[in-house]
Design a protein that fits this description.
Organism (chains A, B): Brevundimonas basaltis
Structural class of chain A: alpha+beta
CATH superfamily of the largest domain in chain A: DNA-binding pseudobarrel domain
GO molecular function (chains A, B): DNA binding; type II site-specific deoxyribonuclease activity
CATH architecture of the largest domain in chain A: Beta Barrel
Oligomer: homodimer
CATH topology of the largest domain in chain A: At1g16640 B3 domain
Strand order of the largest sheet of chain A: 2-5-4-3-7-6-1-8
Number of helices of chain A: 14
Largest sheet of chain A: 8 strands, mixed
Distance between the termini of chain A: 41 Å
Helix content of chain A: 25-40%
Protein name (chains A, B): Restriction endonuclease type II EcoRII C-terminal domain-containing protein
Chain lengths: 408, 408
């Protein structure tokens, strides 16, 4: 499976902390991102005025990205002063104001130049998850008032990791992982449609023999997840391919409604798949370790934590000691939904939550600690966290050791 | 504009409060929804065992719906007892367990029979927004342990309102509002692409002359929103139609990536449109009333409430009295994001939030009141709220009167 490299998508990227002059129309209407002169390294010297296709995105941890496809202008503000050296500037178009003005002084700007010569302007809050994730993805230092940049062509980095691909997905860059080498086996097992999520996850595990769920639970979980992801996108591509060949035009009438319904079904299947996949594979690892646990067992108020160790019967049994109970939520991405876990079982003081989300911000992990929630992140994804966060994070291995101790 | 009727989509609908026997596998594996015998009125007497196409959905106020298309079984449990009258039962398929088991004892079930003879099984939490919305949409009494139902064919109800269409959208029933009567004007103004959201909203207002923003602000806002919605879907249908005619197959290769990108762009444009539209039209109404206000003005910590009256300069001026300031958030749908407004301006004790969301649950509105947030709902949408909630709600008219008093 070739997973692609960052350099397949980007040439270079720069960042800075935004000033009011750049994004506050009450201060300036200059539409300029300052200090971007050094983008010359990627954009070349400006002619008088060059228009470059540019995607603008405002990214938050709570809502879907606000995106606009327009242009940016790369120009030499000293074009009329032939005796002085060029002074290149990057301007955003007036059309992009509704996106750019979402940002405030102190927020973070990233300017990315794609391999396809398109620019992407990313704006996000300082201290947000998405900021930490993007800085990690592009290997950038925390932004300052000075625009600083990195040449991605020069870097000798490994293939894009699971964590990296998740972040790229958030900025709507899709890294293809489908692999038709698996298609025959998929069609033989399920035909051209998806089975239930449990059956699909189990199929992925069966095809992934060189793993060690007992000795290497963290890397085993990742291997299962990644193979299932490849299988999912392989079968999805086949299904979409077939549907597109049929087309959405019959007797010269187009089926707009059919298109919307089909595309919604594709998006929704993608959304719900990841969560189920994580839970199924975790259950398989807990079984391999011979742990007693229950999925979806009820606690008080009909709450249903994803995993309860040893189970709901013990939870409801007053004679069973509180400190023998473990409650684990599982969320493939957290966003601000991690708080839901806090109310899922009053008897368990410290809750655990396992996630695949890379680089959750220090703000969020501080709040988790304050709420006595221990985050569990598979070891390969922990590299996207800051070093002081990593000291606190549990790996899956750590979590398993805890549950074993409590069961002993 | 023909907006459609509920009876265009549904024949009948029933509801009950779920018991553990129905949804808790620890109690029963019977897969039966109890008391559904009376569905005979719509489904007819069961043969021994009839399989009916059925969509299962688990609906929450926080996450995207979990949906599964499968079947349900309608059968006569006394088929072998020819001397007794038939005892019809509705069973869900084992395949639907991952959706049905999301529900717990005490949650709410709705069984809808569509005009297309498909069943839709909807499951949601008791006391949730979506429960209140669905009960209002289908005009059902609050569910009890007994299955009760309503014949939609018999009702003489008006065309589907804006509120009703929003709720149908939540259960993925799309009510077409496009109207090609507007297409020529749209193409003349913008060509086959969308302009900025402000320009589009302004275009809609210009085409909507018989309104009275000063005297009838609530109905004017709704008229603008509804016409813009029609214009949006008319132009969208044209754009999709053109794209589908081109197709996603070239030289016998399909463009799966192009399909995904195009369908994402359609979904994202839908998502971001509604919010902008509401803000633009509100601003136009505030202007018609000659009120001083500012959109996106900064308060402390770089927070940007949607509307600040009279403006950010007054907010930052310590000599300006606190009780002369009004802060208004605008969210076309609230979900649990209404809390964001609470931190957008410490000087304004009671915040206001205007929304188009129908039938927000009493749980949520109680929490809003406790947090000193006054909800503003255009009068035509207030019918979807319970009577005690309506006594508390502000209309847009009420809100305008308050701001005028403060400015006087």
């Amino acid at each position: 499976m070739k997973r692609g490299y960052l350099a397949d998508y980007f040439v270079g990227v720069g960042t800075k902390r935004l000033s009011g002059t750049e994004v506050d129309p009450a201060i300036s209407n200059g539409h300029e991102f300052q200090g971007t002169r050094i983008l010359q390294a990627f954009l070349g010297p400006p002619s008088t005025r060059r228009s470059i296709p540019c995607t603008y995105m405002w990214l938050t941890d709570e809502e879907a990205p606000v995106r606009l496809d327009a242009t940016a202008t790369w120009y030499d503000s000293r074009a009329n002063q032939p005796h002085r050296r060029p002074e290149p500037r990057l301007l955003y178009t007036a059309e992009a104001e509704p996106v750019v003005y979402q940002a405030s002084e102190g927020d973070t700007l990233l300017v990315c130049l794609g391999r396809d010569a398109r620019l992407t302007v990313l704006l996000c809050r300082a201290g947000s998850d998405i900021e930490q994730q993007l800085l990690w993805l592009f290997d950038l230092e925390p932004p300052t008032a000075q625009f600083s940049q990195r040449d991605i062509r020069e870097t000798d980095q490994g293939a894009l990791s699971f964590a990296a691909r998740q972040i790229l997905e958030a900025i709507e860059v899709e890294v293809p992982v489908a692999d038709d080498h698996w298609l025959e086996a998929l069609l033989k097992a399920f035909g051209p449609k998806f089975p239930g999520t449990a059956a699909f996850s189990s199929f992925a595990r069966d095809l992934c023999p060189e793993v060690d769920p007992k000795g290497e639970p963290d890397s085993t979980l990742m291997a299962w997840l990644e193979l299932e992801e490849t299988l999912f996108f392989t079968l999805e591509r086949h299904i979409i391919d077939e549907r597109l060949r049929t087309g959405f035009v019959a007797a010269s009438r187009t089926d707009v409604h059919g298109f919307i319904a089909f595309s919604l079904s594709v998006q929704n299947r993608r959304k719900s798949r990841a969560g189920y996949s994580l839970e199924h594979h975790l259950a398989s690892i807990f079984e391999a370790h011979g742990l007693a646990f229950e999925r979806g067992g009820r606690t008080e108020g009909n709450k249903k934590p994803d995993f309860l160790f040893p189970g709901a019967a013990a939870y409801r049994d007053d004679r069973f000691p509180d400190d023998g109970l473990t409650l684990l939520g599982a969320k493939s991405t957290c966003k601000d939904r991690w708080r839901q876990v806090l109310s899922e079982g009053a008897r368990v003081r410290r809750k655990h939550l396992v996630t695949l989300e890379p680089g959750i911000s220090r703000n969020q992990t501080d709040e988790m600690r304050a709420a006595d929630l221990q985050l569990v992140v598979p070891a390969p994804i922990q590299t996207s966290y800051l070093s002081d966060q990593r000291a606190w994070l549990f790996s899956l291995q750590d979590f398993l050791a805890l549950v074993r101790r409590r069961a002993a």
